[in-house]
């Protein structure tokens, strides 16, 4: 009974006004102020290591850039072209992760494959997967979690070993019908916490799932869809029932969950539609949600909010359009 | 009048040329398919095994950004469910995929028994976005081949219609 009630509740979204909040944004890397070879071009994803090093998937340049915590350019690796070592394009996918030993994992949904680099940027290996993926996460055991973008009615998350061997899959899709809208609604982003739990958020449905390291669903928690995103005429279409009934509808859900990240103390962060943040507890329960403003003289389009995987550490925001990175403290 | 006749003649020549060119390309593909081999677990390389009726062969060397892999696998899977028992073979190139990649695909995709690795180099010039689907009869003759810029839905329809005719 409780399961049925829970599913019914979560099938109905909450649309409401959310408060504004001031957050301090300290510039860490401003592409416009760098020499040309150091400029980022459409940076798609970002990961931060325990050491504080920042890794950016510089999509337009088919490379990974390593910055130190102050934003100083340290190294770059990866190359365009074909072959196992080549990075094609990430698009808007959250396609970089870093493990405890600072190995770097890049998912290239174009080819699609996963590339693994050691901390000094040396290419280790790559392996192919039979579907494009929308995000990548890695746990302490160096198991690689990919959220699949496939119309097939299979599980949501596929797990591979660090050597590229397929291990298991789990997670129920939101909508099991085939169809473009259904496929879009099933797109998800994922991140691991320090205890190897996996948190998954759907790109266009306000839901956070927490899975055990073995893939058992532990909790589902909702957050609020900011009212400003949803036009009055859209509300009647914006339900899982509608999508299940019309999985090929041209309706475009207005919510975009760009990224999910977990800090060292287990606090989780979602970035929504470039300028909203959801904060959740280690249990997955939502504790705070607010909208923030970009710096006054900027017109930033933030697509990633990434926490450093250690306690009392800052988070970083990545802007895809101008290639700017800001440190945000005390969220 | 002369101009009209010239135009007509030119059109006929172009049409005949195109036809000959397409036929010639099909013949080349047919010959090339005959040179494709698949890897057996014993380590031997053998020609494509033919069914008693049609054999649907999809070779893969890579997947282009515009053609997500999942779509083709989905198409083949849907075809298989529409026409269960069809002889389907998915051949992954040795250059584009490791042995482990292919083992992973067998574990992940629903048609494990149809997935093999092989030498598809003879077909490389004819790949469309890193892949090519062809249909062979029981004698290994090319019956049908994938064309460029055809949607997965259309491909599925053509394939289903072809198999239905048999």
Which regions of chain A are unreliable across 5 or more consecutive residues at pLDDT < 50?
Answer: 1-9
CATH superfamily of chain A: TolB, C-terminal domain
Tell me which CATH architecture of chain A applies here.
6 Propeller
Helix content of chain B: 40-55%
What is the percent of helical residues of chain A? under 10%
The quaternary state of the protein chains shown equals heterodimer
Q: In percent terms, what proportion of residues of chain A is strand?
A: 35-45%
List the secondary-structure elements of chain B in sequence, H or E.
Answer: HEEEHEHEEEH
Task: Label the overall shape of chain B.
Answer: globular
Task: Round the mean pLDDT of chain B to the nearest integer and report it.
Answer: 83
Structural class of chain B: alpha/beta
State the major sheet of chain A: 5 strands, mixed
Q: What CATH first level of chain B would be assigned?
A: Alpha Beta
Poorly predicted sequence stretches spanning 5 or more consecutive residues of chain B: 13-20, 65-70
- CATH class categorisation of chain A: Mainly Beta
Shape of chain A: globular
Overall SS class of chain A = mainly beta
Widest sheet: strand ordering of chain B: 2-1-5-4-3-6-7
Radius of gyration of chain B from the CA trace?
Answer: 18 Å
Number of helices, counting only DSSP H or I runs of 4 residues or more of chain B: 4
Question: What is this structure's SSE topology?
Answer:
The complex is a heterodimer of chains A (331) and B (166).
Chain A (H helix, E strand, L loop, with lengths): L1 H9 L3 E3 L3 E2 L2 E7 L12 E6 L5 E5 L4 E5 L5 E5 L18 E3 L5 E5 L4 E5 L5 E6 L4 E6 L5 E5 L8 E4 L5 E5 L9 H6 L2 E5 L5 E5 L4 E5 L5 E6 L1 E3 L13 H6 L11 E6 L5 E5 L3 E5 L5 E7 L9 E6 L7 E5 L4 E6 L2
Parallel strand pairs in A: 1-20, 2-24
Antiparallel strand pairs in A: 3-27, 4-5, 5-6, 6-7, 8-9, 9-10, 10-11, 12-13, 13-14, 14-15, 16-17, 17-18, 18-19, 21-22, 22-23, 23-24, 25-26, 26-27
Chain B lengths: L1 H32 L3 E3 L5 E3 L7 E6 L8 H14 L4 E7 L5 H10 L6 E5 L11 E6 L5 E4 L6 H14 L1
Parallel strand pairs in B: 3-4, 4-5
Antiparallel strand pairs in B: 1-2, 1-5, 3-6, 6-7
